[in-house]
Amino acid sequence: MSSAMLELILEATLDTLYMVAVSGLIATALGVPLGVLLYVTRPGQILAQPLTNRVLGMVTNIGRSIPFIILMVAIIPFTRALVGSSIGTNAAAVPLTIAAIPFVARLVEGALNEVPPGLIEAAQSMGATPYQIITKVLLPEARGGIITGLTITVVTLISYSAMAGAVGGGGLGDLGIRYGYNRFNPTIMLITVVILVVLVQGFQMLGDYLVRRSDHK
Amino acid sequence: MITLDNVSKTYGTGEQAIHALKPVHLHVPQGAIHGVIGLSGAGKSTLIRCVNLLERPTTGRVFVDGDELTALDAASLNRARHRVGMIFQHFNLLSSRTVFANVALPLELMGVAKREIRERVEPLLELTGLADKRDMYPAQLSGGQKQRVAIARALASRPKVLLCDEATSALDPQTTLSILELLQDINRKLGLTILLITHEMEVVKTICHRVSLISAGELVEEADVGDFFTAPQTRLGREFLNAFLELEPPQALVDRLAAQPGDDTHPVVRLAFTGDSVSTPLVSRLARDCDIDVSILEAKVESIQDRTLGLMIAELIGPADKTREALAYLESHDLQVEVLGHVQRDA
């Protein structure tokens, strides 16, 4: 294999990691608070706001139900306005982020739902404010579940990022399609798949390790 | 220290309304250990959760340590809750925090400085016998140890009142006893007022000074523990006591019991000796003075704090007029007599 080819593979791997990292970080930063909001505004919860909850839930569901490939094309004007271009890794990171936010939010909400209600009650009996309950009880107690959710998100992002080729986003999926599929190069195809498998495996192991470390149950 | 004035709790409205708690009055003086006992679903939990407003009462006012909690805004209520510790049946410890950090939690919530937190948590771990467990996680502890952590945590904010929500119901009898001893110790050492709810008479008997009986959302009886165990005033109270004392006539006898006396029958009686009658040799006197035989079927003596309670199920054997005389004799003394039925003499 030529060194040019190797360089292409390396670049594609870095592109994938870049897209996953940017969209993963931003989606976490926005999705975790959204997930917390979805949980604490539920009826009967510490900041019960049934109307807000319903609206947030609906928006989240809409975000979750649009197929990624359609989302990516549909928001091109928004992407262009945000990053100045509709092609490239930065442009691909925008729809990845948009798709991942509701994904993260629902997983976080699910993780918070696993926290025994008795703990919230105990904190209330100690005079905790809703903010304190979120930061001192809910998030720490749901940490394992949240990390599990974020791991699933990263793995999903890796696979979604393969579709980013559709907007010229680059990355391993794009490489696999252009060189492996379109130019009938099975070696490239295989290499990209193997790298993707290794990446997914690696992130999964890292996630599992972090969950184990934070789990004292 | 705690006063519930006309406090009630209703869930839902109109036709579907569930009156979990009918208007109740309760006063627990400073330093007392007050128990509320009742069957599941009687409203105990609702009652105790109304004290620190985990449940907001539908009507009535709640006073703790002179403050009317029901009149406070959210921020003042949170401050007032620092003076009311609470422990729970399932401990409710944070699994992500060590023993030390769990006990430190209420202090963190109050914004106490790190150094002071350490100074206040360490003695509590000593008091509750957890000094060597400080860096362990709840999952590594036994049920009794978890409840000790919960108690230490409840005490961290130096409360005036401790609420115990079925605190020993998930523990085995021996552990229950050790937790009760700890609570009693705290009550004496710190002068802490304790309100506890339970369905176990053992708990009431062991540490409570006063007890209220709750049934269908109403406090139906309130008494000093000694009085409650020797002379409950309500039917439910007697049922609780009998179940606790496990003094029921043997089944074989129950099968032969007739409600009405017949030609050749003898009364079977349950006698409860309290006060002076405990130390009086009543049975031998009965035999001598009334000229009947007394066959003791079952007997038991219980110490209820500073009182003694004797219980006996006995058959009074003799001619009808003699046994009637014997019953009158027993009733004239300081003891309760209940005729369970009449049994045909098989001999």
TrEMBL record, chain A:
Which CDD domains does this UniProt record tie to the protein?
TM_PBP2
Q: Which residues form the ABC transmembrane type-1 domain?
A: 13-207
Its primary localisation, in coarse terms, equals membrane
Q: Which residues cross the membrane?
A: 20-41, 62-83, 146-168, 188-211
Q: How does it sit in the membrane?
A: Multi-pass membrane protein
* Compartments where found: Cell membrane
Task: Identify the keywords attached in UniProt to this record, alphabetized.
Answer: Cell membrane, Membrane, Transmembrane, Transmembrane helix, Transport
Family, according to the entry, reads as follows: Belongs to the binding-protein-dependent transport system permease family.
Tell me what this protein is called: ABC transporter permease
- Species the sequence originates in: Modicisalibacter tunisiensis
From TrEMBL, chain B:
Q: Write out the annotated subcellular location.
A: Cell inner membrane
A single Pfam family it belongs to is: ABC_tran
**In this protein, which residues make up the domain named ABC transporter?**
2-241
Extract the CDD domains matched here. Answer: ABC_MetN_methionine_transporter (cd03258)
What keywords does the record list, in alphabetical order? Amino-acid transport, ATP-binding, Cell membrane, Membrane, Nucleotide-binding, Translocase, Transport
Q: Which InterPro entries match?
A: AAA+_ATPase (IPR003593), ABC_transporter-like_ATP-bd (IPR003439), ABC_transporter-like_CS (IPR017871), ACT-like_dom_sf (IPR045865), MetN_ABC (IPR041701), MetN_ABC_transporter-like (IPR050086), NIL_domain (IPR018449), P-loop_NTPase (IPR027417)
In alphabetical order, the GO MF annotations are: ATP binding
SMART domains the record matches = AAA, NIL
Per the record, membrane topology reads: Peripheral membrane protein
Q: Can you say what this protein is called?
A: Methionine ABC transporter ATP-binding protein
Organism source for this protein?
Modicisalibacter tunisiensis
